[in-house]
Amino acid sequence: GNSVTQMEGPVTLSEEAFLTINCTYTATGYPSLFWYVQYPGEGLQLLLKATKADDKGSNKGFEATYRKETTSFHLEKGSVQVSDSAVYFCALISAGGANSKLTFGKGITLSVRP
Amino acid sequence: GAGVSQSPRYKVAKRGQDVALRCDPISGHVSLFWYQQALGQGPEFLTYFQNEAQLDKSGLPSDRFFAERPEGSVSTLKIQRTQQEDSAVYLCASSLEGGLRIQYFGAGTRLSVL
Questions:
Q1: How far is residue B3 from each of residues B12, B22, B45, B101, measured CA to CA in Å?
Q2: CA–CA dist B11, B22 (Å, integer)
Q3: How do residues B32-86 score in pLDDT, each as one tens digit?
């Protein structure tokens, strides 16, 4: 079956530090890949996505590249801000399925200190 | 509406009680999903509707869980004879059919079973 593995957290960084959050996946075929973010007290929001190999998703200074050879979709940001403090989830949707259900990783909590 | 609306935001139930959780999707969204998020975990798929048809209920953990969407809009997730292990946040998401299938999430209902 499908699965998503995220690095263990939590992660605490100083403002303007570089961020990498690792994500690897197991799926048949070519899934679509997503990063969702959950700010305190709010619902999950789509941060970025990629639908085929070598695609790069980007939004709000965050980037992630769909790497089929390593089955990875690592999230990066060059300079984090306090407002980036949230829980980040990597997720996938299987290709070709009639049901576009998301399979999520466990999530990782990011805290950015001033 | 502007987003996916879920009610109530918080629900406390005594073990053995029945509960009903409501989801009001974004207007015009054909697909609707329910997910269960245990503390410290990523959301896990419960069930999926396309319009009023429940096309996948493979994630429902037991026959105490029942979902419906009778008119293809509002959906209700019902849990009968609640148990402590049902304590979780229940998330609803909706999406347009086809395309990139981006799912938009509500803020969730936090269920605590005492």
A1: 25, 14, 20, 16
A2: 12
A3: 999 999 998 999 999 999 999 999 999 999 999 999 999 999 999 999 999 999 9
CB contact under 8 A, B103 and A102: yes
Q: Considering chain B, what is the average pLDDT of its residues?
A: 94
Cα dihedral sign, B32-A72-A35-B89: positive
Cis previous bond, A114, omega within 30:
no
What residues in chain B have their Cβ under 8 A from chain A's Cβ atoms? Answer: 3-4, 31, 33, 35, 40-45, 48, 55-56, 59, 91, 93, 95, 100-108
Task: Tell me if chain B has a CB within 8 Å of the CB of A106.
Answer: yes
Least Cα separation, residue B114 to chain A (angstroms) = 23
In Å, how far is B50's CA from the nearest CA of chain A? 9
Q: Are B59 and B47 in contact (CB under 8 A)?
A: yes
Q: Is the dihedral of CA B47, B48, B49, B55 positive or negative?
A: negative
Chain-chain contact of A43 with B31 (C-beta, under 8 angstroms): no
Q: How many secondary structure helices (H) and strands (E) does chain B include?
A: 0, 11
* Length of chain B as a residue count: 114
Kindly report, residue by residue over A12-44, the tens digit of the pLDDT: 999 999 999 999 999 988 899 999 999 988 889
